[in-house]
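Pipeline run #58 for the internal structure catalog. This entry was flagged by the ingest filter as a single-chain record with no existing model, so it goes straight to prediction. Upstream metadata was stripped on purpose; only the residue string is passed forward. Reviewer on rotation: M.T. Logging verbosity set to normal.
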Amino acid sequence: MISMPAKRPPVPLSRERIIEAALHIADGQGLRRLTMRRLGDALQVEAMAIYHHLPRGKEALMDALAEHVTAVQVEQHPTWQETARAWCRASREALREHPGVLALALTKPPKGATALAVKEQVEQLADGGLPDAAEAVRTLRAFVFGSVAVEVQQSGWADPDVDEWVRRDERADIDFERGLDALLKGLQT
């Protein structure tokens, strides 16, 4: 008697698995190619099963993807400058990691975990002694988002004629650090 190998039970669907699969599609094929049907196929479930975890459907998915790359938190550092620098670097990495959802990060207003992360950032900088921490956080966010947008644009990620897009650009790292230094100096005055 030949015994058949036991079939592995399917991995249960979760919000985290849905977001991970959606990020994979968006980063590999672009946001336009991310449909609920394609996401269902990637997860090996009916598209309707996704709505159990994201009742508002595609809108909730877009919010969750934006949150995933913008709800960045860092530990409080001894000075507000060090905290701000750590947050900017971590935010940049989160955005660079998922260029497919950069457009969402740039256009979705901060909600949920992102709004909490921004509030925490303001509190950390204020606790670190920065007088107008809320204005500083808006300025730092604008710098990070803008620099990553330029970096992704120059990387060739969205160009269909580019075979291999540049994930790491030493020049971009230097430009980012120079800009961050100048910004932090400006916020001190």
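catalog note: The chain has two domains: 15-68, 73-187.
catalog note: The two ends are 82 Å apart (CA to CA).
status: ready for reviewer M.T.
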